[in-house]
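HUMAN:
Sorry, I am quite new to this. Are you able to go through these amino acid letters and fold codes? The numbers rather puzzle me.
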Amino acid sequence: MKTVLHKSNTRGHANHGWLDTNHTFSFAGYYNPDRMHFGALRVLNDDWVAGGMGFGKHPHDNMEIISIPLEGELEHKDSMGNTTVIRQNDVQIMSAGTGVQHSEYNRNKEEKVNFLQLWIFPKLRNISPRYDQKTFDPADRKNKLQQIVSPKADETGVTINQDAWLHRGKLESGFSINYTLKQNGNGAYLFVLDGDIIINDQKINKRDGFGIWEVNNFSITAANSAEVLLIEVPMI
């Protein structure tokens, strides 16, 4: 078993006025050769966007891009013809494939929006761009791991072009849950949205990231009321 802990205060940080952002892995002006990726997980950004502001149209290709709003509403437009709003409890994914352009704006003028954006290396390159978005009932993650992303179209979650699964859990203080990795050679990266958790006697605090691999399963215990995002990816 191998593990890595990324404390929240070691993330890359930039404040552009309209955007206050933290980068778990190297991104934009933040470069750390020891923090390039965790397996197929390339980017984990924790963004706060000011009211009415956002990212203008920009291109991507050959990347799986996942957006998870935690507070507020994000308006999305892309070159595939999608114009949508993603809200708390929604998950959005774009398979950029051969190429796509999109923009993201805070829909509300008076309130900030906080969302996570993840980039995951694709399994297949140069596929036709694809979009998926779903809403998930928060009651279904109380003291359990709610699957929100899956590589299989017949499973729960938005569909990803990679052997990756994402789960979100909200655990009461003292509650423990076991997670078994779904594919050999995969690892899991846990990002604590709120509260504190314990894995193998390691306490992991709010906005910390913790990677674990070369293991079949592990347990997560809530040191207090906690919410966690679990990202299982191939350890490429």
User: Anything to note?
Assistant: The domain at 138-234 is CATH 2.60.120.10 (Jelly Rolls). The chain has a mean pLDDT of 97. The chain has two domains: 12-135, 138-234.
